[in-house]
Write a structure and sequence with these properties.
Organism: Rhizobium vallis
Radius of gyration: 21 Å
Function: Part of a binding-protein-dependent transport system for a sugar.
Family: Belongs to the bacterial solute-binding protein 1 family.
CATH class of the largest domain: Alpha Beta
InterPro entries: Bact_solute-bd_prot1, SBP
Largest sheet: 5 strands, mixed
Strand order of the largest sheet: 2-1-3-13-6
CATH topology of the largest domain: D-Maltodextrin-Binding Protein, domain 2
Oligomer: single chain
Strand content: 5-15%
Number of helices: 19
Keywords: Periplasm, Signal, Sugar transport, Transport
Length: 406
Amino acid sequence: MLAGLGVAQAADVKEVQMLHWWTSGGEAAALNVLKQDLSKEGFAWKDVPVAGGGGDAAMTALKAMVAAGTYPTASQMLGYTVLDYAQAGVMGDLTATAKKEGWDKSVPAALQKFSVYDGKWVAAPVNVHSVNWLWINKAVMDKIGGKQPKSFDELIALLDKAKAAGVIPLALGGQNWQEATMFDSIVLSTGGPEFYKKAFNDLDEEALKSDTMKTSFDNLAKIVKYVDPNFSGRDWNLATAMVIKGDALVQVMGDWAKGEFVAAKKKPDTDFLCYRFPGTDGSVIYNSDMFGMFNVPDDRKAAQVALATATLSKSFQSAFNVVKGSVPARTDVPDTDFDACGKKGIADLKAANEGGTLFGSLAQGYGAPPAIANAYKDVVSKFVHGQIKSSDEAVKQLVQAIDDAR
């Protein structure tokens, strides 16, 4: 993919160049909505796609482009990465567009923290994803006589039922970001909202090295016993496909998984079920895809403004998020076109935003800066794959890794 990094040098002013890692079926379908909107405005779309669910490979590619001064029109980014590039002085300024369109009134403060730098809008939030979800195959659930688990113990009992019925209980991809994304939910479930915030947003050392964190790792050890032997290295959307096909009962994943169900023409409550991870109702662990806008030459700015305007339009926010599985990054978009899971997601976000229980996902780059998130993912993954043998040792290594990364 790096061969395509020179594209920005010969950019057509009527062309939008987008660096992103949206390459699964559901993601590509969602992105198509934006391509069509821009094509009506007369702008051609130039994909610079870099495969890889967590976006690490895309961010490496972006770093090379920025170093070479060949900026794309925009890049898909997560929270702290936007701020890093803004601090480096390479981001554009969308403030005039944002003011004209009232972004400050409609975009939640939690997202503005990452899309506004030094008083200037530098990124357009596309959506709000939340990670504390269970995705369940309804036919398998009915077959084993399962019901919605309301506690972690009930979840384990449900996985036992699936195992007894000869179905893979838990679909998981053994990649560090997937394992850590699941652990975000386990920590919230084990310790509650206040504990999650202290440990994973405030990075409070007492919380990080507490017995509650140890219990969280014990719970992680319990749940990973239910994955199949081939999970190592599996992409997230292949794990989702296992649930869609009925080869597995449940996946713990962000709501981008719903985009795969939608792409497979599956319907909530008929083909699949969406529940909050047991013990996390009332809280939302979020991340948000943002289009970070670079400081491109003047003759390319019209394409950038068109992209920003299209991205934050109510019609796009609805159409895109219906397909993607996420919910709008604006709080004033009606839920009319959303399915049952989407309506629940919108209502949950509103309640969490108002109730102070909207927390940045550490695994997804919204809880803490990238160096700390990477240290966290590394420790969780080593524990899952048996390189760290006990929860005591995991807690010790987590505290050490986060200290080293600060």
